[in-house]
Amino acid sequence: MRAIVYTGSGGAEVLALAERPDPVPGPGQIRVRVRAAGLNRADIPGMEYAGEVDATGPGASRWRTGDRVMGLAGGGAQAELLVVHQDTALPVPVGMSWTDAAAIPEAFLTAWDALTFRGRLQRGEAVLIHAVASGVGTAAVQLARTMGATVLGTSRTAAKLDPLRALGLDVGIDTSKGSFAEQVAVPVHVILDVLGGPAFQDNLAVLAPRGRLVMLGFLQGPAVPQANLGMILRKRLEIVGSVMRPRTDEERVELAAGFREQVLPLFETERRKDGRTESEGTDGPSVVPSFRPSVRPVLHAVFPFSDIAAAHAAMERNEGVGKIVLTW
Amino acid sequence: MRAIVYTGSGGAEVLALAERPDPVPGPGQIRVRVRAAGLNRADIPGMEYAGEVDATGPGASRWRTGDRVMGLAGGGAQAELLVVHQDTALPVPVGMSWTDAAAIPEAFLTAWDALTFRGRLQRGEAVLIHAVASGVGTAAVQLARTMGATVLGTSRTAAKLDPLRALGLDVGIDTSKGSFAEQVAVPVHVILDVLGGPAFQDNLAVLAPRGRLVMLGFLQGPAVPQANLGMILRKRLEIVGSVMRPRTDEERVELAAGFREQVLPLFETERRKDGRTESEGTDGPSVVPSFRPSVRPVLHAVFPFSDIAAAHAAMERNEGVGKIVLTW
């Protein structure tokens, strides 16, 4: 099979396609013929995929060959074939394209886990999402809306904020105009942060008493020049670090099981709506009995696997809203 | 009634006894004739008390006049009379002295809340307790032992560590000999920290993956000169600030209810044991069917309320193990 591999030491500039042996599914595993894979900053090529079940290992009876699946992987998803634990795979929503499906796992699982389990976001609370135009950001905006929260989001590019309002962004904060802390006018109960050290003190400042700061990344580095932890104690804050990569298969299986039940139906709603809100439906009475907010993957761009360098360059330019996806 | 009050602006040096009007219990409240009160660094005189129910407000039927109670208060416990919500009060263990009882609430409720709800300490895990010779520290050591944890504790005074071994301290760390981080040889799952900023980076360093840092105070101040948050993300750590003072009556009631059921029986076990371990019992078969670890309040010193200045001076000297208690 062909796979994206490191051809030397370095960053994205040494990534290239190469021939590798086909992986063989072990007990409880399935082999997936990858059709598309989301691009991420993580250093192992291929954290997420969408494709067809191609072979099953001993005792793996959950899926049949040809089933359309998507999911998170510990690496190796930027390849023609990928082996994963069968219970970490999720069904691709009916009618969804491979590229759309490949934009779901990392963004929506990360955002859902962060909002629900790490942040314990409640109906009526306010959530602040940094880098809201990112893949995780665009997923988090939509999920936070389904949870009944007020959604605030930051971006360094004002033009990225407008398209997010249709997804559920209530308050867009343009950080090119100044500190986000000065622009946040309500107490924030949950923050999803990908900025890191330089935003730390302002994050503590805007949190409400008993607020939760969920750290998902360090785009601006981990260093805080002059930290003052006083507010952690006074406001009884929680800070929790959350990354997907080091998680065990057991953790991935548990997360996938919850996601299948709680989140996947929200994509189906979207498909039935066909892009229109229910009140705008023109094809007779809706099959959905009452209004239910829906979610959808947001794609910035699609690149062929052979253009991996161009895909990474686009990610570095950081000009778009949503995910970059690779396809064969 | 007489009460400890601030006679001017400043710290403990302006505290003195003064006459104040007797407080009147409102709906659902009880008035307690305070017999003893624990001393704390908090700036409101009187966070905890032990005494007799003296009067009951409208609808307050939980206690009868003369019942022996103890508990946390939002302030005002360094007085002859104190009014509290009836459901925040706890029964004094049978046979326990007023001064022993007054040493329980703040130390044991804080330690239990921190270990159980904030730190989620599990059997077989390791917990590191800073300033382990303090009131909260001596309570936490004993409770952590009942939870089946390995207990590590720090002190700047080596001589304080020895008496704590009998309470359950497995590893005593003398911080006058150097950084605690260099002396911690096992991954730590939960830290109870009262030191604050200067210990922050070392706390992150000694935590195991998914470890929990519970911040209870800032004896060394809240500032961290050069914080690096990298480990929060990499090890998926949790940091949570926890203080008793700003809690609502609803939170105090819930905490007291759990404490009554889960922790108070451990003091009763101690009383039955009469200071001996069960295997040493000389008075026939134990009434306790199987071994159950017990806990007890640890008192450093008792002062009369009229010596409030001397009591605070003793707290500042920081020479003892356990609590300082005031009594009429």
Explain this structure.
The structure is a homodimer of 328-residue chains. Chain A is an alpha/beta fold and 328 residues long. Chain A is built from ten helices and 17 strands. In chain A, strands 3, 4, 5, 6, 7, 16 and 17 form a seven-stranded mixed beta sheet that branches. Chain A has a six-stranded parallel beta sheet with strand order 10-9-8-11-12-15, with helices on both faces. Chains A and B meet through strand 13, strand 14, helix 7 and strand 15 of A and strand 13, strand 14, helix 7 and strand 15 of B. Strand 15 of chain A pairs antiparallel with strand 15 of chain B.
Instruction: Characterize the quaternary organization of these chains.
Output: homodimer
Main interface: chain pair and counts: A-B, 31 and 31 residues
* Helix-strand topology string of chain A: EEEEEEEHHEHEHEHEHEEEHEHHEHE
Sequence stretches where pLDDT stays below 50 over 5 or more residues of chain A? 270-291
Give the C-alpha Rg of chain A. Answer: 20 Å
Strand content of chain A: 25-35%
Give the N-terminus to C-terminus distance of chain A in angstroms.
12 Å
Instruction: Count the E strands of chain A.
Output: 17
Largest sheet of chain A: 7 strands, mixed
Helix/strand class of chain A: alpha/beta
Average pLDDT for all residues of chain A: 90
Work out the helicity level of chain A. Answer: 25-40%
Number of helices of chain A: 10
**What sort of overall outline of chain A do the alpha carbons produce when their principal axes are compared?**
globular
